[in-house]
Structure formats: C-alpha cells, structure tokens
Amino acid sequence: MKSDKDKPLAMLQFGNEQVSVHSVDTKYQGFFKMNEYTLQHKLFSGQQSHTFTREVFERGDAVVVMPYDVKQDKVLLIEQFRPGALRGEDSPWLLEFIAGMFDDNESPIDVAIREAKEEADIDLTDNDLVPIMQYLSSPGGMSERIHLYLAHFDSENVNSGDVYGLLEENEDILLHLVKRNCALDLLAQGKITNAATIIGLQWLAMNYQSLSN
To answer: Is the pLDDT of residue 23 over 90?
Structure first.
C-alpha cells in the first residue's frame, strides 16, 4: 500500500481566483511601463499570504518568427544591437530571430507577417506560419508573453549581408542565412544568448525531421 508521501501531488492547482490584487500603481510610464502591484495569494498550506508589493515591467507581448527553408535546411538569423545586453562582457550585438511587439488590434499572425517584411524583406502568408508555443519570458518581474512561430520560406532570394529595419525605430538589422547545423553550432558555442532564439533552435533540433517529410 502506498504511503501519502508516495502519492503524486496535484500540479497547477491554483488559478487567478486565488490571487487578490488590491491596487496597481504606475511608477513609470515611458516607451515601457512599470507598475507596482499590491496583492496577496493563497498558500500551498491553504492559508493566505501577507499583503505584499511587487514591481512588474509591463513591456507588452511580442511575436518571434523562426524562418526555416526546409528544402535548403537553412535558417535565417538576424544581427542587431540590444541595449539590454550592455551590462555583460559580451558584445551587445546579438544573433536573433525576427521579432516584434503588437500594434493596436493586431493578431500574432499579423505581427509575424509585418515584422518579417520590415526586418528581412520576407513576404509571409498565414499558411507559412506554424505556432510553436507561447511562454513567459521572465515572469518573476515582467508580464511579457512570447508567441513563437516557425515560418516556412524560400531562401533563394535572401542574401546574407543585406541590411533592413525601420530608420524611424532606429533599427539596423543584418541578415545571416545559415545551415541549420551551423546555427546549432553557434548555439553550442555560446554565441546565441537570447531566450527566444535558444528555444526556437532547440525546438528545431528536435523537430526538423518531421518538417521535411
């Protein structure tokens, strides 16, 4: 007979209804926003937590697009400057996938199609895009949710070394069209350091064979 300690625990048994948000106070409003939440929530013991405050960086949700040419077994990486990487010792120019935030009344598919054109001059349709997953990028202090997509595309007319991006958004984006194995080597060497690109390439490493069938 199994003892209580051998019984599996219920996972994710709480939801929004177990959280009481008493107030939300905007501490900073600029290109992004910082809110201070005063809240309490149910504890695993069944009791209620003390009331406490947490600051949350409200940067909005984003879409990430991983362009993959199945026939050529190539992925498109972009390189651009990222101020959030300045504190580290590595270069603040990062290798990434196409990405962007939502404009008003846009769906994730809308964002993916728009950003692919702006950042790499790639024309995508709804049928080219395959949802991979949604995830929270840093939920301990940021509300951003990432929508990650695979984009089937023809790389024939895409050239490494081309530069795109919107001048009014201070974008300066360099294209790198590389073999899938090359991208995975860059990942293994620690040359790709942002979460969305790491997650996308790891997904591709596990699933590329099914995409070519």
So the answer is: yes
- Structural domains in the chain, CATH included, are 12-58 (no CATH), 62-211 (3.90.79.10)
* pTM for this prediction: 0.90
* Number of residues that make up the chain: 213
169 flagged as catalytic: yes
Burial of 101 (0-12, 13-18, 19+ CB in 10 A): middle
Closest C-alpha among 81, 77, 62, 76 to residue 172: 81
Encode pLDDT of 93-137 as tens digits: 999 999 999 988 999 999 999 999 999 999 999 999 999 999 999
pLDDT in tens, 77-103: 999 999 989 998 889 999 999 999 998
Catalytic residue of the set 17, 89, 168, 169: 169
Both tokens assigned to 102 = 């939502």
What number of other Cβ atoms are within 10 A of residue 170's Cβ? 9
Retrieve residue 75's tokens: 């992925």
* CA distances to 56, 67, 138, 178 from 117, in Å: 31, 12, 28, 19
How many alpha carbons fall within 13 Å on the CB side of residue 135? Answer: 12
